[in-house]
Structures are given as structure tokens and as C-alpha cells.
Design goal:
This protein is α/β, with parallel strands linked by helices and 382 residues long. It is 39% helix and 15% strand. It has 13 helices and 14 strands. The model has no long low-confidence stretch (mean pLDDT 96). It binds pyridoxal-5'-phosphate.
């Protein structure tokens, strides 16, 4: 049998073995994976029901509970990026007609609005200028006004670099009998999180930021309260792939096939989580804080201003105001082309106004900050 579709000569690709540049990834993510994580990814694949793989899944669950500081039994890694885990929280908690209140102060709050609407929620929003956060009083008033079934907040808004404080929010949600859903994509591993102490019912994250792993296996967790709502729901979860009533049978005792797990990505995630445990979670948070303060100092020495008030700045993602008269895109391009360093531009309302600099996971170290500051010193006009 011969193939009928060929690559014609004009279009023929230069199919040499793959080579990719070794960039220093200091944008909003992905960040560079730890070398041990990349090594772990190269281990030979086993089957998704192999006893050694099932043991690894158990380890991932225990380690995720540790990094999130939760005892939720339904804590797993979703196959897919952070958006898949985000959708998993919505798909497993929103019933058509539920009022879902979303705090929007950046791009990812808006994504939650869009997603919840697609699952039939009656979405209400409260808003803040991009870069600011909601106070407990503002959240209380909003809960009184809207009486939602779910309050959704973004802990670390990657589009703005702001950290939404969550202390006391879970208690408020219990008072108003609603679930608390939190995006921890840019906080897990790099910013202190205490899911159980804060009363968070649903949370999701990603692998490619604070955990220092490639993208594709994304943390998901739900509390007993959220499980109860799911079990009482009359209809099936509208998303088959992300249905926790089915996925729970693969991750739990029954070990029923659901889909083929991305085996090698789970190796990577397990190794990334092990490295956090080896360092110690509190040490890992402290390292992120120490290195970002070193970055802030260096940026301010260069005369640059930071977008977010210090108290609410994320240790993982810094938004830097682009000075008047400087072409932000050209600077980012030059950093990439001449220095092999990636930084991000602004999103949405902050497009063209800020650069976004990530120091996450393995990249949160002085050895990442120094080359960036050195390059900026050369590239920025004096
Ligand atoms: C706060 C936040 N939520 C959700 C996502 C979506 O994650 P992913 O791009 O891994 O799908 C991102 C991605 O950067 C994010 O920063």
C-alpha cells in the first residue's frame, strides 16, 4: 500500500531531529521546569493501570494535599492545562440556574464568568480596577446582595500581579450557605495557601508555574461540602471528560479505566511535588518572597515603577509599568532575540501598559533575576 498524501517538494520541511532554544522563561508561564523534573519525564512509560503507576497517583494525591494544605479526599491531577482544571471545578459544582458570583479584577475572572455562563449559571459579577483586590467587607455586601450558590475568586490574578486575600472569606461563604471556588493557578507552590483553614471548597491550579513542571497535568480539589452538592445534583455533569463522579473511580479504590492518563506528565508532576516537599513548603514560599523582593529592588533601581501596591503584590508575578515613550513589545522582543529571556506583555486592560515578569518554581532564584536585570540595563533607554 502506498500513501496517497505526500509532502510536496515546495512545502517539504527540513525534518531534522527536534532542537529548541534553551530560553529563560520569565513570563507569566510556562516557567522553566526543574532539570530533575525533565529527567523524571524521560523514564519509560508504564500502563495507566500498572501497580507502579497507581502508587504514583496516590503519591500525587498526598503531595497535592500537602502543597494546598487540605485534607480533601477528592484531590487529583486533571489531564490538561489549568483551564481544564478550571472547567472541572465549574462543571462539577454549577447546576443550571445557580447564581454564581465572580470577583472580576483581571483577565482570568472574566474567563470564569464565561465558563460559568456556559454551564447554565446565572452569573453576577463584582468588579475592581485591574491590579486591586476585594476587601472582606466588599465581599460580604456582595454576598448579601446576590445570595449566590457559589462565590468564585482568583487568588493570584496573573494578568495584574495582584494577590486576593482569602482569610475570612470561607467563613462568610458558610454564613451565606454558598461554596467558595478559588483559582490558584499562579499561587500554588509560590504563595502561602491554606485551603482548609480558609474554607475553600473548590480549587484548581496548573503544573507549569510555581511547581516548576511542564504544562499538562493540573491540580484539582473539592471539599466534602462541594461533593455533597455534586451528589445531590439531579442531572449528570455536563462534561464527560471532567466528571468527578467518573474520575473518582479511577483515582479512588475502584481503579476503573476512564481515559489514558498522560503517563510521563504525571511522572513529572510527581517529581515536581516531591521537590517542593524536599525543600519544605514554607521554605519554598519564603524563597519566592525573597527572590521577588530582590527583583523589585533591581527594577526600582532601574527607575521602573511597579503596578500593584506592595501589600498585594504576588511573589510569583510582577507587573512592571512600561515607561512613557518606550515600546514595550520591542523591548520584550529584544530580550528574547538577543538575551534568550522571555517576559510577558500586558493582557486585556493592561495591554501595552505593563510587562509581566514571572519568578516561579525553579525560576525563583537570584540566577534568574540577575540576567534579566543585566539585560534590561542594556536594552532600556538611559
Ligand atoms: C490565573 C490563571 N487562571 C487560569 C489559567 C489557565 O491556565 P492554562 O493556561 O494552564 O490553561 C492561567 C494561565 O496562565 C492563569 O494565570
Amino acid at each position: 500500500m502506498t500513501s496517497t498524501i505526500s509532502i510536496n517538494d515546495k512545502q517539504r520541511l527540513q525534518l531534522t531531529p527536534l532542537e529548541m532554544p534553551n530560553r529563560l522563561l520569565l513570563g507569566p508561564g510556562p516557567s522553566n521546569a526543574h532539570p530533575d523534573v525533565l529527567q523524571a519525564m524521560n523514564r519509560p512509560p508504564v500502563g495507566h493501570l500498572d501497580p507502579t503507576f497507581l502508587k504514583l497517583m496516590d503519591e500525587i494525591q498526598s503531595l497535592l494535599r500537602y502543597v494546598w494544605q487540605t485534607e480533601n479526599s477528592m484531590t487529583i491531577a486533571v489531564s490538561g492545562t489549568g483551564t481544564a482544571a478550571m472547567e472541572a471545578t465549574i462543571a462539577n459544582s454549577v447546576e443550571p440556574g445557580d447564581v454564581v458570583l465572580v470577583g472580576v479584577s483581571g483577565y482570568f475572572g472574566n474567563r470564569l464568568v464565561d465558563m460559568a455562563g456556559r454551564y447554565g449559571a446565572e452569573v453576577r459579577t463584582i468588579t475592581k480596577p485591574w491590579g486591586q483586590v476585594f476587601s472582606l467587607e466588599e465581599l460580604q455586601i456582595a454576598l448579601e446582595t446576590h445570595r449566590p450558590a457559589i462565590l468564585a475568586l482568583v487568588h493570584a490574578e496573573t494578568s495584574t500581579g495582584a494577590r486576593q486575600p482569602l482569610e475570612g472569606v470561607g467563613e462568610l461563604c458558610r454564613e451565606f450557605d454558598c461554596l467558595l471556588l478559588v483559582d490558584t493557578v499562579t499561587s500554588l507552590g509560590g504563595v502561602p495557601i491554606f485551603l482548609d483553614a480558609w474554607g475553600v471548597d473548590l480549587a484548581y491550579s496548573c503544573s507549569q508555574k510555581g511547581l516548576g513542571c511542564p504544562p499538562g497535568a493540573s491540580p484539582f480539589t473539592m471539599s466534602a461540602r462541594a461533593m455533597e452538592k455534586l451528589q445531590q445534583c439531579q442531572c449528570k455533569v455536563a462534561n464527560w471528560y471532567l466528571d468527578m463522579t467518573l474520575l473518582g473511580k479511577y483515582w479512588g479504590q475502584e481503579r476503573v479505566y476512564h481515559h489514558t492518563a498522560p503517563i510521563n506528565l504525571y511522572y513529572a508532576l510527581r517529581e515536581a511535588l516531591r521537590l517542593v516537599a524536599e525543600e519544605g513548603l514554607a521554605n519554598c514560599w519564603q524563597r519566592h518572597q525573597k527572590n521577588v523582593e530582590y527583583l523589585w529592588e533591581g527594577l526600582e533601581d532601574l527607575g521602573l515603577k511597579l503596578h500593584v501596591e506592595r501589600e498585594f503584590r504576588l511573589p510569583t508575578l510582577t507587573t512592571v509599568c512600561i515607561p512613557e515613550g518606550v515600546d514595550g513589545k520591542a523591548v520584550a522582543r529584544q530580550l528574547l532575540n538577543d538575551y534568550n529571556i522571555e517576559i510577558g506583555g500586558g493582557l486585556g486592560e493592561l495591554a501595552g501598559k505593563v510587562w509581566r515578569v514571572g519568578l516561579m518554581g525553579f525560576n525563583s532564584r537570584k540566577e534568574s533575576v540577575d540576567p534579566l536585570l543585566g539585560a534590561l540595563r542594556q536594552v532600556l533607554p538611559n
